[in-house]
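Annotated sample (chain length 218).
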Amino acid sequence: MRIVLVGPPGAGKGTQAAYLAKNLSIPHISTGDLFRANISQGTDLGKQARAYMDAGQLVPDEVTIAMAKDRMSQPDAVNGFLLDGFPRNVGQAEALDAMLKDEGVKLDAVLDLEVPEDEVVKRIAGRRICRNDSAHVFHVTYNPPKAEGVCDVCGGELYQRDDDSEDTVRTRLEVYHTQTEPIIDYYRAQNLVVTISALGKVTEVTERAMEALGSEKA
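Output written by the structure step:
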């Protein structure tokens, strides 16, 4: 299957993408991974992206699109893939359609993870990260530490990242609504969108998604 995963920040796209890709035996292709891989490998596209990022500018669509095209042409993606973070706007969606048409294939579904805005803010603004190890992540409501402000694992100080503050989260949501959300209508016109609730346990959301994709495939 060839799937695009969309949803607001805090919807759990990364987590669901990993589970779905494993269940469907297709590679999970995320924009973040594309940037990191190209930059670390020193590719021409990576150098271009790095120059923009170092200047504090957004990486242009044409660079992101070229990275995605290169990744989707690799052997493990021949029979399918799950795109996470790409396309990010209608222009990128149109470019993806053109790429797939050139290859004689098409998308099977666009999975839209739906989460109320207040829940998104609660999920992200409640995160606390360990200063000693960023892999140690807690949440004031859903996964609180035993002692407030102290990492259960190593005793390090827990803090809230600047981009996890409520004001920043609401700004990120506004960017999502303005730039990315329009691709849902774009794909809905192609009868590709499958919307599911991303509320509940991770396993419940995964099961919901697999059921929805199974019915779409059928």
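Annotation: The chain is about 50% helix and 15% strand.
Annotation: Residues 131 and 165 are 17 Å apart (CA to CA).
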